[in-house]
Design a protein that fits this description.
The protein is an alpha/beta fold. The chain has helices at 49-56, 98-108, 113-126, 142-153, 172-187, 199-205, 223-227, 243-249, 273-282, 297-305, 311-326; strands at 2-15, 21-34, 38-42, 64-69, 72-73, 83-86, 160-164, 191-196, 208-213, 216-222, 231-239, 253-259, 262-267, 286-294. A hairpin with a 2-residue loop joins strand 9 (208-213) and strand 10 (216-222).
């Protein structure tokens, strides 16, 4: 079952004061997200990630196109009963305590007093705020506000959770805790759709990712497919190699980097690995490691959005990837 279905979504905003001119935030975006998966929407600032989330949540209307949640129109209020949302820059009633705010959020979904109390205690403990339940929100740090935002997004035990930059403002410990929460939600069969520009988080969490740039879809697919798209080259690490060894191997290497007593050589594509290893043995050099270097999510991301002038070539690459998915 599809949790999210986006069909040819386009959104134009009017910019300017006297004579407003349209600015296109999204252009013919089409995506499908299966129930139970963690889906990452990636892209630089201004790519259209937040606009996409706002349309799915019914906060803004698209200029053209359709968006559905669990086969219902995204603007159908009944579709939002089992939806949770964390905005990019949450702002809460700062005179309330964490417990008071969570009580207010729970009341919006009609939770009973008993269920409300248990749910609030569980969630505040889960996000690491159990020691701050009676502290006014105005005294919270940015990271604490982010944690509270995640807790309120889960108050109704949603089946679909939208998280807009959920790691924003969190320290390394907080980021790990949020990652663990997302993985726990996945184990429970929840669908998580989150936007981020932190690629390591997406690589750790996501089943599939989509990349936006200037409102256009530049690529979409399973992380496994992306990261197995190609073996770029091979990396060799030597310890205390002699100058003669480096000279003998330089003809095979595209780069040579020395770090302390170790030297890392990245072999050129097509290099004869057997000849390289034979040369290392002849030079009596100490081989520390030999590793295939595969495409990372960062490599894939930069290939799609690193050159803002290369949209046409990236569109071709996107089409090729989509066609491979559909074969």
């Amino acid at each position: 079952m599809l949790a999210i279905e986006i069909i040819e979504l386009t959104k134009d905003y009017g910019v300017g004061f006297w004579r407003k001119r349209p600015r296109r935030a999204l252009e013919r975006l089409s995506l499908e997200v299966e129930a139970g998966e963690v889906f990452g929407l990636l892209g630089p600032n201004g790519a259209g990630k937040t606009t996409t989330l706002k349309i799915l949540l019914g906060l803004v209307f698209p200029t053209v196109g359709t968006a559905r949640l669990f086969e219902r129109d995204a603007h159908d209020i009944s579709a939002h009963q089992k939806v949770g949302y964390l905005p990019e820059n949450p702002s809460f009633y700062d005179r309330l305590t964490a417990k008071e705010f969570m009580t207010y959020a729970a009341s919006l979904f009609g939770l009973s007093d008993k269920a409300r109390s248990c749910r609030i205690t569980l969630l505040l403990e889960q996000v690491g705020l159990s020691d701050s339940v009676n502290l006014p929100i105005r005294k919270f740090s940015k990271g604490m506000i982010q944690r509270l935002g995640i807790a309120q997004a889960l108050i109704n035990d949603p089946d679909l959770i939208f998280l807009d930059e959920p790691m924003s403002g969190l320290d390394p410990v907080g980021r790990r805790e949020v990652r663990n929460i997302i993985l726990q939600l996945k184990e429970k069969g929840k669908t998580i759709f989150f936007s981020t520009h932190i690629l390591s988080d997406a690589e750790t969490l996501c089943d599939r990712v989509a990349i936006l740039d200037h409102g256009r879809l530049q690529g979409c697919g399973e992380l496994r497919e992306i990261l197995e798209m190609g073996l770029s080259n091979t990396e060799i690490v030597l310890e205390k190699p002699s100058p003669d060894t480096i000279v003998a191997l330089e003809s095979f290497a595209s780069s040579v980097v020395r770090t302390g007593d170790r030297v890392r050589l990245e072999l050129r594509a097509g290099s004869d690995l057997a000849k390289v290893l034979a040369q290392i043995v002849r030079c009596n050099a100490k081989l520390i490691s030999l590793n295939p270097v595969r495409m990372s999510l960062e490599d894939y991301f930069m290939e799609r959005v690193g050159n803002s002038d290369g949209l046409s070539s990236r569109r071709g690459a996107t089409a090729g990837m989509e066609s491979r998915r559909n074969e």
